[in-house]
Structure formats: structure tokens, C-alpha cells
Structure prediction request, 234 residues.
Amino acid sequence: MSASLHSWNVSPAEAVRIQQDIREKVRLEPFEEPVQYVAGADISFDRGSDIFHAGIVVLKFPSLELCGHSLVTTRSTFPYVPGLLSFREMPALLEAWEQLPAEPDIVVLDGHGIAHPRRLGIASHFGVWVDKPTVGCAKKLLVGMHEALSVEVKSHAPIYDNQEIVGVALRSRENVKPIYISPGHRTDIASSLSVVDACLTKYRLPEVTRNAHRLVNELRRGEVEPGVRLYQDM
Prediction:
């Protein structure tokens, strides 16, 4: 677990400067470590509310069997500013991370890694903070463009931003909108794509973020309680 990199009580202008500094700490490299546990992270909140529901789920790899989860509900005071999502959502995710009884080997976050205007989306920011390999897997494109994908499952194309490849668009299911994958920290584009691909089943989203998305929405609706639940030893 890394030490605190910065304060969260900052202005949007200060947040931009922090992003520019932390960007220099991001390591893009092949992820070749053995994986026993993979985690997924997501956030849910009601529009206009400053109450955030954060969740991290841990799955056995490669079976994708659900091992446990960590859920928190907390308040965020940072305003919604495009490109500064991590300053609004990461404190809640870090609370959920701190509750985990053991650290997973890699984390897939619902959001972007380096496919970001300043190359520091939430997956990169989170990865540098906790010093773990991370991958961004988003439902919408934030920056850049890619060639049209064929309708077949697993068709993919690089995402270019200012002539730089920052991620890959992947059609995870036939005839559905693509998902957008980018390395966060201590991964690269090829290994990020490989990890997400290994977590795909019959749904558009990989099992890690799909389960995190399900749980944080159940938490927001009061259907589950905050805290840690283990389904098996980690």
C-alpha cells in the first residue's frame, strides 16, 4: 500500500496540476505476473447527490468464482468536472480497498487508464496510489477515436489520441456497443486487453466490473449492507 500521494481537499485547478505530476509515475509495462485473484471496482450514486457507494469485488482467476467483496458508503465534496473523475470517486474506492483482507493481483476499474486527456484516468490514478497493476475498462470513449469494428465478437481496434495509441476498443459481445480498455499502471495495452478478455463471459462487461456494478447499485438501493463479505478464504 503506498503512502498518500496528495490531499483530496483541492480545487479543480490544483487537481489538474496533481494529475500532471502523477502522470510521470505511471509505469506502462507488460503484465506478466501470475494471477490468483483479480478485482473489479465501481461506484454508484444518485444524480445530484454527494453520497457515493463504492465497491471492490474479488474473483478467483481464471475460474472467475466470486471470493468476496468490500462495500462502503461515503460522501464526496469534489465537484463533477470532466477529466477529474478520480478526485470525485477515488476516496470512496480507497476506503473499500483498505477493508480488503488481502490484496488482489490486478484490479480492473470501471473507467479509463491512460485513455484520458492528461493520461491519468481513474485506473491510472488508483494504480499509482496503491502501487498495483490496474486496467481501465469503460463503457464510453473519453478521448481519441478508432476504426469501425465489425459486428463479430472479439473484434477490436486501437484507440488513437493525437497519433498516440492509448487503448483498444473491443466488441465483447456480438452486435453490442464496444467496451474501451486502457492500461492503468504496471500494465500495457496488450496485457490489459488479455486480462479483460479472460474475464469475459456471456455479458458485455467483464465479470469483475459487472459484479462490482451490480453490488454498488444494490448498496445504493439498500439491498446489501456496507462492509466486507467473504465467500471463501482469500
The chain has one domain: 12-230. The CA atoms of residues 38 and 219 lie 21 Å apart.
